[in-house]
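Weekly sync, protein design subgroup
Attendees: M.S., D.O., the rotation student, P.L. (late)

Item 1: inverse folding check
M.S. brought a backbone from last month's batch and wanted to see whether the design step gives back something sensible before we order anything. D.O. pointed out we never logged the input encoding, so this time it goes straight into the notes. Structure tokens as presented (457 positions):
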């Protein structure tokens, strides 16, 4: 990672990175709200059209880890600018896509480009701000995420209702000017001798693609040849990834990072929290559309309270970390996520959009508290080239959690899977997410019991 100071001030680069993050998040939430309209256009079910969101998230997960390596090879500014250009290109393809398959492919391209933004933004901020000021910068970025989460559903709803869902999936094109500023700020190249493990990236693609496809289709099709094949692909990808991590001199997933005893709990907590929150947000538009006569703007309004809660909660993470430690703050965030998913599982969406808008508030609070302390812990745990790589792997787990959670819940909704006491569809999916959040709470509590200071770094 090139640590030379750029041409812009720390405040200016924070503003530029904030703009990139805002557009990336708005692009995601606007596309989530547009799912019912896309489904209507192509006569698709929730599990099929859900790939517009979690197909994007799955590729995002892979790309976040890859960009850490690419930045070490080509430089932070150049690599981030390339990612933004790829996002804009994918957005253009989505706008003109003639079929659902092309829309999904375009969203995958968007995910491949957007994956550069969280990883490299954090890496750039780590070079511009001293350790005692970094969490402030990360908190600002998380607040931007909250604002984008709040405005994204409304932006998406208005674009869908006033223009078309095609406008909603094309928001990423607005990020193009940011690429020019980032390139100007950091034009330096990285290390031309840095090796890239493309085969390792391919094995991770097999692992994540097979896993997400299997968990999405299993509720619909059961144990069929197709889902079994996806599981085999995922297992093969996992075996190849583990093998290359041990044998390759510069593996895509370094064993030195995975074997770090303090890094793994951070990545698992990110996976669990993302699965609980994003899994719910991905499933909600389809669930609300099926249960009520509600347009895209109405769906956006239901999601707004959760997104606003993210923005508010993210401003308290620095104080919470000082008092509770990294893992203590993580435990609080997971408890909020458990409460939100548990309430939605118990009450569902049939009682009305207004109640759902209230029930998603704990989810927003939990998600807002989740990432800044964990990211700060990762940046303090690693330095040099391994820092951006570790951040990339962290975000890989984070977005893999979101895509897996969304894949499961949309599959359950389309299958209308029924469970005694819970009902069918959305509440069953939320119960699964609540179980995942509970597992995260238990893991984090055990860490705090064995390490009372709660310092996850």
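Designed sequence read out in the meeting:
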């Amino acid at each position: 990672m090139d640590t030379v100071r750029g041409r812009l001030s720390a405040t200016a680069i924070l503003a530029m990175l904030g703009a990139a993050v805002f557009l990336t998040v708005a692009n995601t939430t606007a596309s989530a709200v547009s799912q019912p309209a896309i489904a209507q256009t192509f006569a698709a079910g929730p599990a099929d059209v859900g790939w517009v969101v979690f197909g994007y998230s799955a590729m995002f997960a892979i790309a976040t880890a890859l960009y850490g390596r690419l930045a070490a090879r080509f430089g932070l500014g150049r690599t981030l600018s390339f990612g933004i250009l790829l996002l804009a290109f994918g957005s253009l393809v989505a706008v003109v896509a003639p079929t659902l398959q092309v829309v999904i492919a375009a969203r995958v391209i968007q995910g491949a480009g957007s994956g550069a933004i969280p990883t490299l933004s954090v890496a750039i901020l780590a070079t511009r701000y001293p350790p005692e000021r970094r969490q402030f910068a990360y908190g600002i970025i998380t607040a931007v995420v909250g604002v984008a989460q709040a405005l994204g559903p409304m932006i998406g709803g208005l674009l869908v209702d006033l223009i078309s869902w095609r406008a909603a999936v094309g928001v990423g094109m607005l990020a193009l000017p940011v690429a020019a500023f980032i390139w100007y700020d950091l034009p330096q190249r990285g290390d031309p001798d840095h090796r890239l493990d493309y085969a390792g990236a391919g094995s991770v693609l097999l692992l994540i693609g097979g896993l997400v496809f299997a968990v999405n289709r299993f509720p619909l099709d059961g144990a069929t040849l197709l889902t079994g094949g996806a599981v085999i692909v995922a297992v093969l990808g996992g075996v190849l990834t583990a093998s290359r991590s041990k044998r390759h001199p510069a593996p895509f997933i370094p064993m030195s990072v995975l074997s770090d005893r303090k890094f793994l709990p951070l990545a698992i907590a990110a996976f669990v929290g993302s699965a609980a929150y994003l899994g719910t947000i991905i499933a909600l538009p389809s669930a609300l559309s099926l249960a009520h006569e509600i347009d895209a703007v109405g769906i956006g309004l239901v999601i707004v309270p959760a997104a606003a809660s993210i923005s508010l909660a993210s401003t308290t993470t620095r104080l919470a970390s000082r008092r509770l430690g990294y893992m203590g703050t993580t435990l609080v965030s997971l408890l909020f996520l458990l409460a939100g998913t548990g309430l939605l599982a118990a009450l569902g969406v049939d009682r009305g959009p207004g109640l759902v808008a209230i029930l998603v508030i704990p989810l927003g609070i939990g998600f807002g508290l989740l990432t800044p302390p964990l990211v700060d812990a990762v940046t303090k745990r690693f330095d040099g080239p391994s820092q951006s790589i570790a951040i990339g792997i962290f975000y890989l787990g984070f977005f893999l959690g979101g895509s897996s959670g969304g894949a499961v819940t949309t599959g359950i909704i389309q299958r209308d899977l029924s469970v005694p006491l819970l009902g069918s569809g959305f509440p069953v999916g939320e119960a699964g997410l609540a179980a995942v959040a509970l597992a995260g709470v238990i893991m984090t509590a055990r860490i705090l019991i064995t390490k009372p200071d709660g310092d996850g770094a």
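Discussion: The chain has two domains: 10-196+250-450, 197-249. DSSP finds 20 helices and two strands in the chain.
Action: P.L. to compare against the previous round before Friday.
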